[in-house]
Predict the 3D structure of the following.
Amino acid sequence: DDDRLIALASALAAKQPGQALAELNAALDAGVQLGELFDQLIGYFRDLMVLAAGADGVPLLSVGEDRRRLLAEQAGQL
């Protein structure tokens, strides 16, 4: 879900590898398919690159539009 992607990306953006691995492990423990999770992360980082480039009018692909502000903040961190 969106919260899992956001938590994992937040840990990566904050350069907290231990937290990122804990988030990944929690996802796997919950039965998330690794390939699907990585596909979602690719879309998520695409959205971060779009926002970092200033393309505010481009729709997000990985999470709901209600999360745009949060992704913009993460994009600024990266």
